Amino acid sequence: MTMEVECDVDDTIENLQTELQAGTLAALPGMRLWSASEDYTSGSGTYEDKGYIFSSLVGIVKVTPAEGNKKTVEVIPIGGGAALARTGEIVTAIVARVTDRGARCELRCSGARPLTRPLRAQLLKENVHDKNKDRVDMYKSFRPGDIIIARILPITSLQCYDLATDEPELGVVIAKAADAPPGVNMVPLSWSEMQCPVTLAKEPRKVAKVAPENVRDLIEGNK
Question: What are the chain's domains?
Answer without folding.
Answer: 9-77 (2.40.50.100), 90-220 (2.40.50.140)
